[in-house]
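Dock FE2/S2 (inorganic) cluster; give full complex structure.
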Amino acid sequence: MSEKRKWRMTRRGFLIGVGATGTTLALGVAFGLPYGRIRLADMFENSAGAPASMDAPPNAWFEISADNQVKLFIPKVEMGQGVHTALAQLAAEELEIDWAQLSVVQATTALGPFDSRGTSASNSVSSLWVPLREAAATMREMLRTEAAKLLNLPAAQLQLESGVFSNDNARLTYGEVVSRVSSWTVPEAKPPLKDPSTFRYIGQPVPRVDLPDKIVGKAIYGYDMRLPGMLYGAVARPPTLGATLRRVAAGEAASKPGVVTVVAEPDFAGVVAESRQAAYQGVFAMSLEWNETQRWQQADIERLITVGEGTGVTIQRLGDAPDQLRIIGTLRAEYRTPMAAHAHLEAQAALADVQPDGVKIWASTQFPDMVRGEVATLLKRDKATIEVIPTYLGGGFGRKSGVEPALEAARLSAAAGKPVHVGWSRTEDFLHGYLRPPTHHVLRGNVNADGRMWAFEHQQASGHVAAEFLPGFLMAIFGADFGAWRGAMIPYAATHLQTVAWRNELPLRTGWWRGLGLLANVFALESFVDELAHAAKADPLQFRLNNLPDDEKGQRLRTVLTRAAELASWNTAVPAGRARGIACCVDAGTAVAHVAEVGVEGGNIRVHKVTAVVEPGLVVNPDGATAQTQGNIVMGLSSTLLEKITVKDGQIEQGNFNQYPLLTLAETPDIHVELISRGSQPFGMGEPPMGPIAAAVANAVFALTGQRLRELPLRLTT
Amino acid sequence: MELNINGKSYTIADGPARPLLWVLRDELGLTGTKFGCGAGYCGSCTVHVEGEAKRSCITPVTEAAGKTIRTIEGLAEAGADGSLTLHPVQQAFLEMQVPQCSWCMSGQMMTAAALLESTPSPSDEQIVAAMSQNYCRCGCYVRIKAAVAQAARQMARAEEGAA
Ligand code: FES
Ligand code: FES
């Protein structure tokens, strides 16, 4: 990779670089061209792309070497969702190579495709579905053109298989073409993409590329990063919510064994030491005074997050719901969900090496480019001198969209002049991160004589999700927090509809959590739809089928609902002491329906079985999609049955898993997953299957006990 | 102080009292053993001490000194040429594509291997009881249970074949 490469930008935005010695061909596509959906890119991005002259192709997706191997540089991070494998499937498909010819390399902010969007919102595969395949196909066609020239044959006469062009008497590998060609032309026309009926990899349960290393303990995560001569850092944390440093002095820290550097700045107190233990003891010995604010209580939080408090924005409106909800027989119900922790098992971690001529950061991060930008601002360095190298993530769930450990490590490394690793303790992770916001929902609805929804309103209040991370002016444009209202809009065909999203400031940070507002909103909405069905004396499945719209979205929901009901034997008797509940949603383009079968054991809800039907458009990797569905259901059940963060006397009360237990295998139901592959565009799989799980369970609990539980975690009253 | 890990002997500084976990990870660079909670709740840090599953985050290093320690790095058998023969538990976890992020998985596999050592043909209830001591936030439980059962069958077959 040391040879100089030449660049050329064509109209289609491809970048191409060719090794001077002609042994490798690298090709990339400028990131973010045909992206749809909300343009988060613009919000996180200050400047475009890597510098134009670098030794390595800054935006290259692929590198083909003379030995006919292909490296695929992937800018999305692997946190267990299988994205490296799914994207490799897309690339291998259009490149027409054998699986063994391909190796996946994690891109960094300096090497590989530039990605300002991070890895979130279940959109990695859907947003790259076209650009990545087009880049691969372009590379394939360029190779074909050059191979034809070298063999002196018409391109159409060449067969292509496993990265080898051939006809009856000639044979040329990609590697041979690459080592013999020194000047390449990028075609201006879009390359032909493969007909789906000829797919070899897409749609197959291709095994995960990252598992062989993970199985033997070799895979490196942010918490595992090591460098020769590295030291460990720890940072002082506020004693209560909202506390800020008033006075900072080194105190006795410097004399503690193992302490190397003490950093005492007006807004920051930290210690660099030879071991983690010594670093924490050093911080403990510093002399710190804090300005504390009000001692917040749980009741304050719930009062702030109540429909009618803060700013309300109407995000969905049809007809005149408020007027039509004055009709006698209108149902009204309130729902609440609590704050929750991400509880990724790998706590936040980063290693920083700040040197005069450049900065390297290795981090468990979902947003490498955001880390780079913030480190540049903090250290007052040029972004081009900073490289952020994402590692594997031991779970992300939205929490690793934060940048704190990287900034802390950078600050401490700058002071110590040595590489410094900052790895949070579990308690730091619980108390000093950001949380899933609490929510409150007020639902009102009525149904006409023939069982049709007439007027339906969902008012929801939430702490910040996206608002925590976006500049104020952007929130002023959006009005409502699009993260908080994910899943809040009513997907049914009522004659009068209204959804209002309220947001309010909390004295603690809330933000991205897997699915954002999805679990809370679908819990409230789909539980209330069940209430309407029961009030109308209708079967909850039939009621939904009757009231969904006749558009495509409605039909997709009908399909997953009907199939889930069929698989779960909805219309047959339940085993004694059990009942079934059903719920559905469409999220990130994916339609989901769950049927939960529950019982009661020793006064507790016991979920015996979940039947899930998921239609995510085209299924890229059925085994991966099944794993995501299983995982989402387990994480969602953990929230449904157990998880709750509370505040007392200005502190978060849960500091470790003894106070915040997670679901274990013992409480995990049988999970039956069926996928429906449809059409030619994949949609999200990382979050949507979580949506309906809480409502499906709560609806089953109602069917079994007659208790309508309107608050998470669900608790039976005895 | 001498530690015997995966058949190799390591000398470490006597130093202050500290958990085995951080000696493995930070002092010896054996980062396959993971930190999850530091207090014995999650099981991510599970290793074998004298063949028994132990949570290394609450095991003082002095307690492990002089004993046989096995970590995920030593679960597979290394051949003379450096090739690895996976333990049946690793084989099953790979075949059934169990891990997602995999941060918990060293602990899961060490727990499972210790279970199958002491209880070669576990019932479903025994598998659930043993494996419910470990958290998996990614929610791989359904596959963990199936893979441990498969590893048990595999080991039983190998045992029969050897007899
Ligand atoms: S890290 Fe040891 S049990 Fe959690
Ligand atoms: S695989 Fe991620 S915590 Fe278990």
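Observed: The domain at 77-162 of chain B is CATH 1.10.150.120 (DNA polymerase; domain 1).
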